[in-house]
Amino acid sequence: MGREAGVEDFADFRAPLYEVKANLFKGLAHPVRIRVLELLSAAPEVSVTELLAATGLEATNLSQHLSVLRRYHLVRGERRALQMFYTLAYPQVADLLSVARLLLNDMLNTTREQLESSEKTARASAAADSTR
Which CATH number fits domain 1-89: 1.10.8.100, 1.10.10.10, 3.40.50.720, 3.30.300.20? Predict the structure, then answer.
């Protein structure tokens, strides 16, 4: 998976805020990690067993993604007996996912409206051409 950001990337207060934000989004930049965060947003805590069942991933693959999410300070893990449980590190992560969902819905609606308008224009043009 390559080198991922760590504490040092977030602790460099000399870095411009846009770079720090970009590093945060790198932690989010995989569909599996988004899915894991969505699952964690829906419950106070989720066990690795539950995450494996919900994602259908192999344990090693899920472990790599959870490691990235921990490194980016997006989740926290706690071992209890033989089981590992995860929670969101900050409730704002759930808010961020919710805002992203709203943004995507708005973007899709705008695209759909543009396509419908384009189709109406094409039909009207075709109808006008057929009457000539």
Answer: 1.10.10.10
Specify the pTM. Answer: 0.77
Q: What is the 3-state secondary structure (H, E, C) of 34-57?
A: HHHHHHHHCCCCEEHHHHHHHHCC
The residue length of the chain stands at 132
β-bridge pairing 75-80 and 46-47: unpaired
Cβ atoms < 10 Å from Cβ of 91: 10
Residue 57 CA to residue 55 CA, distance in Å, equals: 5
> Which tokens is 15 given?
């870095």
Whole-angstrom Cα Rg for the chain: 22
* DSSP helix/strand/coil, 86: strand
CA–CA separation, 56 vs 50, rounded Å?
Answer: 10
Which pLDDT value is given to residue 115? 87
